[in-house]
Design goal:
Elements: H1 2-17, H2 40-53, H3 71-79, E1 101-102, E2 109-110, E3 116-117, E4 124-125, H4 131-151, H5 155-166, H6 169-209, H7 214-226, H8 231-265, H9 269-282, H10 287-290, H11 292-308, H12 313-316, H13 319-331, H14 335-345, H15 351-380, H16 386-406, H17 413-428
Antiparallel strand pairs: 1-4, 2-3
Helix pairs in contact: 1-4, 2-5, 3-6, 4-5, 6-7, 6-8, 7-8, 8-9, 8-11, 9-11, 13-14, 13-15, 14-15, 15-16, 16-17
Length: 429
Amino acid sequence: MKRLLASALFLSLLAACAGTAPAPSSPENGLSSPASAPSSQASEASAPAAATEQPSSESAAPSSAESRPSGQQADQQSAVMFNSQQLDNYRLSTPENIPAAATESAQFGADQTGVQSMNQPAETVSRPLDPYMAFPALVDEVFAFADSLYRAGYTDSATAYLERFRVIKPLWLQWERRADSLLNEFGKTRAEKSKQFDPMVLKIQNMNRAQSAYSLVAETADSLIALAPGDSLVAWAGEQKKLAYTNTLQKARRELSEIRVLAEGHAEFNAAQAKLKEFQLRYRDFEDSLQTVALAARIAELAAVADSVAKDYWAKHDPAQALAQADTLTRQEKFPQAKELLNKLMFSNLRQQALEKYNALADAYCNKQRKVTSQLFTKSQKQKDEQNKKSLLKDAIDSLDNCLVEYPDYSQKQKVLDNMEFLKKELAK
């Protein structure tokens, strides 16, 4: 649709350059008869006139005097063009995704016959026209249409059509001058904003270099965004927040791993719980990503097991035999019994082997939950009743959630999170 609209707009510009020269009929809609086609003499006589008269025609020039500087003024503007590219070297680069913008002038639309209408109201466009794609495509269509006239035997019409195309060149010069004028204006505005926001930009950069806490970087970046510094700086500030989040998350994971080792590796539960509480206060923004609540529950669980296991328990029981039994329970998918036994083995002389078996148990349990989720999702897609479908999707999400609640450090945790996000989107449809 956009190509059709852009095509018709470009052809209307050609028509404006050609003045009152008649447009040849499309081969698809039926070519004019040889009697009605322009003669060779007529085309030769009219072509020079079009070439000399059209550049000064009012229909070919921009409608506003302000947007049509004289040649001398345009040359002066180009000579003193503000070079805004100097601002792009480290932060003011144009975002890859240009935001949607409301057009100030009326948009061209196509009616049922394909003819362009200039009376449609202004619309909001989702994507701007890409000149590197649109203009070459339009030019190819011009050449293809001229060639179709020529092949049909209408050489006079083909000649007149292409000569109308050639007089577009003066318009290009005017467009270049207008673009230079706008670039100059945009560049000055960007330079003024650059000076205004430089202190905050440098502050955010220095904070990320020092790997400051995410909350501090986010607060400063949000303050910058609230001042409406321009689309590039807004995008840059968003990227800086992501960088700060990643840096802080990595640091938090290292600290959390130390707390886990303190509990599981050394059975120092009181110290681990105290450190975890202080950790949660410092990393409030990472509760979901780090599953700190689940770790607190795990430490409490191990502490309760430690209280229940008598000091002489493993003097009366064989740890090696219990370890083998836990492995068998895991293969039989008796996950609660296997977990209970492995928790007790954490307080034996086979603590390290028990921890390895515990991780294997987590993988087996979560792989089972993921398989159940897959089956539920497949079943939901076959449901015609929306309520049944949503119910199955909820059960599928709960199955994945069980995995993260029971074993928050599951080795494929990110895949589980991605699957949950996908299912939630399906549920919201």
